[in-house]
């Protein structure tokens, strides 16, 4: 089966595939590769941080994943139109600053993203709103050791997320 091109105008199928491709890419935690999915002039709002262009994106993601250890992300399609996709996401991470003090503090982020794409399927705008909550290690949803080769997408996608998680 051939994967359809993940470019606008989106269908329900291609929008879903685009979201899951982004999930896979972000779970690599490779800022340079992630940045390739965006236009060179892409604009972002990530919480209270405003970015523009590849260099800003790479720098931001590098710092992010230094602060957020054992990062695991789940993205789901929320809505779409011709060249826009809205995403609901959840991710969990261990706080690096707390880890330097010998504490194991886990956090879960809940949020929404608004994406706009150019004709080639590269993201030209990403607006993100998110909240973090501290969780106990035993409350984590995305449990597994990706350092031992576990497939992070299989790990996060097997969790059934419903109204009780909102």
In short:
With 166 residues, the protein is α+β, with helices and mostly antiparallel strands. The protein has helices at residues 12-27, 31-35, 54-67, 96-100, 152-157, and strands at residues 38-46, 49-52, 68-80, 84-95, 106-117, 123-135.
Features:
single chain, 166 residues, alpha+beta, 6-stranded mixed sheet, 6 strands
Description:
This protein has about 170 residues and is an alpha+beta fold. It is about 30% helix and about 40% strand. It is built from five helices and six strands; from the N terminus they run ααββαββαββα. It has helices at about 10-25, 30-35, 55-65, 95-100, 150-155, and strands at about 40-45, 50, 70-80, 85-95, 105-115, 125-135. Strands 2-1-6-5-4-3 form a six-stranded mixed beta sheet. Strand 1 (about 40-45) and strand 2 form a beta hairpin. The mean pLDDT is about 95.
């Amino acid at each position: 089966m051939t994967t359809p091109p993940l470019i606008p105008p989106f269908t329900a199928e291609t929008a879903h595939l685009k979201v899951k491709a982004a999930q896979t890419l972000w779970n690599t935690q490779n800022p340079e590769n992630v940045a390739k999915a965006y236009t060179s002039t892409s604009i972002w709002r990530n919480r209270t941080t405003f970015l523009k262009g590849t260099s800003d994106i790479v720098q931001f993601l590098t710092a992010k994943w230094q602060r957020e250890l054992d990062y695991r992300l789940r993205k789901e399609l929320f809505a779409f139109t011709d060249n826009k996709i809205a995403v609901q996401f959840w991710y969990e991470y261990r706080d690096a600053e707390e880890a330097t003090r010998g504490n194991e503090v886990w956090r879960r982020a809940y949020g929404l993203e608004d994406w706009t794409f150019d004709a080639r399927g590269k993201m030209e705008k990403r607006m993100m709103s998110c909240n973090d909550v501290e969780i106990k290690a035993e409350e984590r949803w995305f449990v597994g050791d990706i350092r031992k080769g576990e497939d992070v997408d299989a790990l996060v996608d097997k969790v059934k997320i419903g109204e009780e998680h909102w």
